[in-house]
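New to this. Explain the following:
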Amino acid sequence: MHERQMTTAASRREFLAKAGLGCGALALTDLLHSEGIVGAEQSNPLAERQPHFKPRAKAVIWLFQTGSPSQVDTFDYKPELIKRSGTKLAGADPKTGFFTTSGKCLKSPFKWNRHGQSGAYVTEILPNIAKHADDISFVYSCYSRSNNHTPAMLELNGGMIRQGFPSMGSWLSYGLGSSNSNLPAFVVMHGTKPRGADPIWSSGFLPSVYQATSLDSRGARPIDNLELPGEISKVQQRSLLDELNAANRKHAEKRPFDRDLNARLESFELAYRMQAAAPEAFDVSSEPKQIQEMYGLNRKESKDYGRQCLLARRLVERGVRFVQIFAACPNTPGGAVSDVPWDGHNDINGNHRACAATVDQPTGALLTDLKQRGLLDETIVIFGGEFGRTSDSQGSNGRDHNPNAFTTWFAGGGFKGGAQYGATDEFGYKSVEKRVNAHDIHATLLHQLGLDHTKLTYRFNGRDFRLTDVEGEVIRDILA
């Protein structure tokens, strides 16, 4: 038995109130649509977008040297350390409060030479990088806000020393989209994950479609679960995916403000397309033998990092926008791989020789390969760690963390070859001339990719956020 529903006519006041709310909702929807908040979700969030101005570069390969190389043992030559080795060095910096460790100057154990027409100094442990001195812009005056690995890596990647903020690769994917719909826009490669792991390359509060595809490229299957199960045909898989997409889109249409729903839909489609494109992109065996050997794939020390560098070239060649490699190399000669390999607390000589044996040949090969293929002009290569190391010794032969100074270098993508920018004090302990922080690095990289860092914003929790927060200056002196 059904109850009879009683209806009453709406009063004029109730009618006007409801009509007013409806008009307001229509106006709000139109406003949100005009600002790209509603409506954009119905299209591919990774569709290629126009930059703010004509770019000099199309892609970035970031060779992140986890654990941080010592600036005074790699690129920042300090003869004063040789003269004063073993003598007392001043203690805490009155401005920063950071203390040195033993108080005794420690000279570099490595020989230094000048290279190229620029005359840039590079130590003996990096001979292949040294060959490209005239292709590189050296920035000697970088500094960070933390002397701990994880917050410093978060800062260099996402501009903040705490978790929850998008990394640069995610910002770039959000700002420019992808130029290859069959491969991710943002790829991270690692062996042992660096300290801090996934939050370092997180998409933070950006929609999760801009999250990195993280992979361990040492194995035969760098991306998990990409292969089609044997019991399912391609036709069946496409049919299942179409049904899933139809159900998901119906669900998403009722929730227009939930951007992660559309991101989830796109992730299914991207995974489907990658089944065909990714195996070919990751197949380095198709490269000529001389190219594989140039990257050091025939050497135990460099084969894993060399494979990553070779894959990076293959990925940017196929339109991947941002590739980041986190160096995984022995912490000591013949030792186990560390999550912060360049962390030379006890023996800077042994530690840096082991790490350099891993990364030097592949890095030099990457620059050579990009250059001979005509890709270096449109690809930025960046090399450096999360902070520097002290000018005095920790123990007798090591160096402690030092956020006051470190060297980062850039090549390709419109950077000025042979440039030498900024300076540290006579001991290499602190940046003193043309100081550069993470926001400046990010502003400069975005500029070369055609993006104004002050205009690349995302509204979250009532505020427009950007990668460079409220800082950042483009380092124009190192741009060609």
Q: What stands out?
A: The first helix runs from residue 12 to 34. The radius of gyration is 26 Å.
